[in-house]
Amino acid sequence: MSDTLIPATIVTGFLGSGKTTLLKRVLTEAHGQKIAVIENEFGEENIDNDILVADTEEQIIQLSNGCVCCTIREDLRSTLSTLAAKKRKSELDFDRVVIETTGLADPGPVAQTFFMDDEVAESFLLDSILTLVDAKHANEQLDTRQEARRQVGFADQIFISKSELVEPAALDALMHRLKHMNPRAPQQRVHFGEVDLASVFDLRGFNLNAKLEIDPDFLKPEETHAHGHKHHDHTHCDHDHGHCDHDHGHEHGHNHEHGEHCQHPHHHHHDDDVKSFVFRSDKAFNPAKLEDFLGAIVQVYGPKMLRYKGVLYMKGTDKKVIFQGVHQLMGSDLGPKWLPSEKKQSKMVFIGIDLPKEILLSGLEGCLA
């Protein structure tokens, strides 16, 4: 079945971060791939005028290099259905879809469309969410716009544009900041949004694969959290909101890890509401307890949970259990067997807005067999 599914990529990002440059290249360059680009017509900077003859009647236009450009007039669902139908009838030829969300859109509902709608799920496979970040204006945008922070939290891959316009120390601090928000997403610097297409497609961000990519540097200072998070001095925490002072401590720890950054005070200023944390344990989970706990957590905090993913060591199976979710939607699958040489260990990463870290960590601890 999956051979016939059309891969889809969601491109999101701050205003001026180079999304339009990226989409123009996709639509005009002779890259030999037939791509359908779906544009949110409310975009601040439309690519149509440059490339397309304004033909208001036609929503879907075939371009000379074999690509297709399509403006969303209705909702995404119906646009995707139309494209899939035209492809089946051989009216349109394309191999993949790229969806641009407007500058301040939340990519969550777009991603959910691929899982919740049966018709869409039968034709398309969501590959990944790409977020473009403008290095020059990123800190201000992250400080003032939660939508910008959410886009970082959702990303499977982050592209940083305009990095040549900022000092190396500032860029370094920005990359640290992004990593705290989302340790799963690799970061790549790009020039004016000019990204090599090989690093845009087939990233398999939503594959339930047995590898959980978390930046290894990020894991180092977390060491204490997973095994002994009980003996931090959390007495002064405001548990309801999860705004704990130790998040700053965690950042300090992160920077001392890298030694040379300590003299930059700006590393410590950002206490973003989009944060990530990792849970690890060498003990097996009790499947029923874990399912109940995660089900309850998703009910309560689902809207604030951006992305979460894990490779789990479960009692009663010799296979890895792989799970992931977006907002309230959670799925799991049996992965490959644990190899005799492998250390059986659960590793989970949660990325969300003001998630109650302590409640989650102690709750997960309580689900261990």
From TrEMBL:
<keyword id="KW-0143">Chaperone</keyword>
<dbReference type="InterPro" id="IPR003495">
    <property type="entry name" value="CobW/HypB/UreG_nucleotide-bd"/>
</dbReference>
<dbReference type="InterPro" id="IPR036627">
    <property type="entry name" value="CobW-likC_sf"/>
</dbReference>
<feature type="region of interest" description="Disordered">
    <location>
        <begin position="223"/>
        <end position="270"/>
    </location>
</feature>
<feature type="domain" description="CobW C-terminal">
    <location>
        <begin position="274"/>
        <end position="368"/>
    </location>
</feature>
<dbReference type="InterPro" id="IPR051316">
    <property type="entry name" value="Zinc-reg_GTPase_activator"/>
</dbReference>
<feature type="compositionally biased region" description="Basic and acidic residues">
    <location>
        <begin position="235"/>
        <end position="263"/>
    </location>
</feature>
<dbReference type="InterPro" id="IPR027417">
    <property type="entry name" value="P-loop_NTPase"/>
</dbReference>
<comment type="similarity">
    <text>Belongs to the SIMIBI class G3E GTPase family. ZNG1 subfamily.</text>
</comment>
<comment type="function">
    <text>Zinc chaperone that directly transfers zinc cofactor to target proteins, thereby activating them. Zinc is transferred from the CXCC motif in the GTPase domain to the zinc binding site in target proteins in a process requiring GTP hydrolysis.</text>
</comment>
<keyword id="KW-0547">Nucleotide-binding</keyword>
<keyword id="KW-0378">Hydrolase</keyword>
<dbReference type="InterPro" id="IPR011629">
    <property type="entry name" value="CobW-like_C"/>
</dbReference>
<dbReference type="Pfam" id="PF02492">
    <property type="entry name" value="cobW"/>
</dbReference>
<dbReference type="Pfam" id="PF07683">
    <property type="entry name" value="CobW_C"/>
</dbReference>
<protein>
    <submittedName>
        <fullName>CobW family GTP-binding protein</fullName>
    </submittedName>
</protein>
